[in-house]
Specification:
Blueprint lengths: L2 H23 L5 H18 L1 H10 L1 H28 L14 E4 L4 E2 L2 E2 L1 H16 L4 E5 L10 H13 L7 E3 L5 H14 L7 E7 L3 H10 L4 E7 L6 H17 L4
Parallel strand pairs: 1-4, 1-6, 4-5, 6-7
Antiparallel strand pairs: 2-3
Helix pairs in contact: 1-2, 2-9, 3-4, 5-6
């Protein structure tokens, strides 16, 4: 009678563990990776010790209560993740659909060995496409020095745009200090204003699809009157993980009153 739930727990746990281990081996380390690894490992341990756990559950009434509350808590959390993901889905425009903007701000997403990580490269490719469609817009790249790196994200991003898309580095606004989305936008504002961009004008915010909702909320709080979200795709290998990480980032951003 216990075979089906035990097998279901084992299968789901194995999938979660794989979803966490694969990006972890590729050098990604954040809550969106750690949480699936921990849940997967815990689920496999539960499946392995299923009979012993069932004996413990039946031993005392409060054990059964703890068992039920644990599953209720996990279910509520999973539902909350699904609800948030439904809010994130579909936010942002494709470059071809963006109305005229005064500037294009590309938010940072991590570098490795002096090169943009795949998610950041996709943001830059999307921004370059928009810049070709709207050559009058000032392009800004943002980000400080990542852990273990020697160059800022801003410089790495600018070099990528020059090498891959033929953009002049001297024409770009390069912000090199920020370490968060809030700082990306806050520190880029005066640099844009120095180039004649008025924050009351429409300004494109380019980021990964999962990140745009929070980025636009922060942009409004930072004084961008008409931020226009432009969605870059997310690499398939890390899509589940970064969407899960955004769940925790949204909670943290809300707690810190960033939006």
């Amino acid at each position: 009678m216990n075979f089906l739930p035990r097998a279901a727990v084992a299968v789901v746990a194995a999938v979660l563990l794989a979803l966490g281990v694969v990006p972890l081996v590729s050098g990604h380390f954040h809550l969106g990776v750690v949480v699936p690894v921990l849940l997967g490992a815990a689920g496999l341990l539960l499946a392995w010790q299923w009979q012993a756990v069932q004996r413990w559950r039946a031993a005392r009434p409060w054990h059964a209560t703890v068992w039920r509350l644990g599953w209720i808590g996990l279910t509520v959390w999973v539902v909350s993740v699904g609800w948030l993901w439904s809010l994130l889905a579909g936010v942002g425009l494709a470059p071809q659909a963006v109305p005229p903007v005064a500037a294009i701000v590309v938010l940072g997403s991590g570098t490795q060995d002096g090169q943009p990580r795949p998610a950041l490269a996709m943001r830059l490719d999307t921004a370059a496409e928009l810049a070709r469609l709207q050559p009058q817009a000032v392009v800004a790249v943002t980000g400080g020095v990542d852990f273990g790196e020697t160059e800022s994200e801003g410089i790495v991003m600018a070099r990528y745009l020059a090498a891959q898309h033929g953009m002049s580095m001297t024409s770009l606004v390069i912000e090199e200090v920020s370490t968060s989305t809030e700082l990306n936008l806050a520190l880029t504002k005066p640099l844009l204003q120095a180039r004649g961009v008025d924050l009351s004008q429409p300004i494109a915010i380019v980021s990964s699809d999962f990140h745009l909702r929070r980025a636009l909320q922060i942009a409004h709080r930072q004084g961008f009157a008409q931020p226009v979200g432009v969605a870059a795709p997310t690499p398939p290998l890390t899509r589940f993980n970064v969407w899960l990480r955004e769940y925790f980032a949204m909670a943290s951003s809300w707690a810190l009153a960033e939006w």
